[in-house]
């Protein structure tokens, strides 16, 4: 198998992360069965939209600004942002089905309706987003891929960043949180050439004012690693 995510067409892209985890609880199976059909965004998968027609964003958002969270994990940050920002519409992407089930439980609890999800690879979503439609993107604790030979699997590589840059509005904010110093290094090296400018870089105790700490951040803190928060703006 090749290891060049940027060389893959949508149907043939390599995805290296986990899709299934521990056995789902009965309640989680119920959320998936009852809620996923309503919460998921149609027209994103190749099966659903083989011509890769761009999504109708005005209809989706009702004219509200559109934000994206890449790899929402258990969904706590995504739901927090949806509840906190009723005048915004959010899309979350997450291929890990256990995370999707957790998110659906949180949506039920919060009663949030201003969000939708693609339960899969964010690159499938990028393919069908029109140019310059996103006002904000969150990348919280992306998979670290610690081995040097796997660094090109990271999100902060041209195979992902060029796709992201196309769909971000000029001036749109791109936030990256990570506990891995080498991920900070690669983010600072690779994000600006993709068309972004660094706005701020802070550490523990100095997160964004509307930040909600995620499961992976909590794990990092328990294990003695330090959070880093980077903010970029899309050029133009
Ligand atoms: C380390 S976890 C962090 C989860 C969550 N953001 C948090 O902070 O707790 C990284 C997540 O990114 C997801 N992910 C990896 N590659 C992805 C892709 N191509 N598209 C969407 N999500 C992806 C993984 O499935 C995983 O749940």
TrEMBL record:
Enzyme Commission no? 2.1.1.33
Q: Which residues bind S-adenosyl-L-methionine?
A: 69, 94, 121, 143
Gene Ontology MF, one: tRNA (guanine(46)-N7)-methyltransferase activity
As its record notes, the protein acts as a catalyst of: guanosine(46) in tRNA + S-adenosyl-L-methionine = N(7)-methylguanosine(46) in tRNA + S-adenosyl-L-homocysteine
Q: Mind telling me which PROSITE patterns this protein's record contains? A: SAM_MT_TRMB (PS51625)
User: What keywords appear on the UniProt entry?
Assistant: Methyltransferase, S-adenosyl-L-methionine, Transferase, tRNA processing
InterPro entries the record matches: SAM-dependent_MTases_sf, tRNA_(Gua-N-7)_MeTrfase_Trmb, tRNA_methyltr_TrmB_bact
Keyword set includes Acyltransferase: no
Which residue ranges run through the membrane?
Answer: none
The UniProt entry's sequence similarity note says:
Belongs to the class I-like SAM-binding methyltransferase superfamily. TrmB family.
Question: What is the role of the protein in this entry?
Answer: Catalyzes the formation of N(7)-methylguanine at position 46 (m7G46) in tRNA.
This chain's protein is named tRNA (guanine-N(7)-)-methyltransferase
Instruction: Tell me the organism's taxonomic lineage.
Output: Bacteria, Pseudomonadati, Pseudomonadota, Alphaproteobacteria, Rhodobacterales
């Amino acid at each position: 198998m090749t290891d060049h995510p940027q060389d893959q067409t949508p149907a043939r892209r390599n995805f290296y992360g986990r899709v299934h985890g521990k056995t789902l609880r009965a309640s989680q199976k119920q959320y998936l069965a009852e809620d996923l059909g309503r919460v998921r965004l149609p027209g994103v998968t190749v099966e659903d939209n083989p011509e890769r027609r761009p999504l109708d964003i005005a209809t989706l958002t009702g004219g509200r600004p559109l934000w994206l969270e890449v790899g929402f994990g258990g969904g706590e940050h995504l739901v927090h942002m949806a509840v906190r920002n009723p005048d915004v519409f959010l899309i979350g992407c997450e291929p890990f089905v256990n995370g999707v089930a957790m998110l659906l439980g949180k949506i039920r609890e919060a009663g949030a309706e201003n969000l939708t999800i693609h339960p899969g690879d964010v690159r499938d979503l990028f393919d069908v987003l029109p140019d310059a439609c996103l006002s904000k993107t969150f990348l919280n604790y992306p998979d670290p891929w610690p081995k040097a030979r796997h660094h090109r699997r990271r999100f902060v590589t041209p195979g992902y960043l060029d796709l992201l840059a196309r769909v971000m509005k000029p001036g749109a904010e791109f936030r990256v949180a990570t506990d891995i110093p080498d991920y900070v290094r690669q983010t600072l090296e690779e994000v600006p050439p993709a068309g972004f400018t660094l706005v701020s870089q802070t550490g523990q105790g100095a997160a964004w004012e509307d930040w909600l700490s995620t499961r992976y951040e909590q794990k990092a803190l328990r294990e003695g690693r330090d959070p880093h928060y980077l903010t970029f703006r899309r050029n133009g």
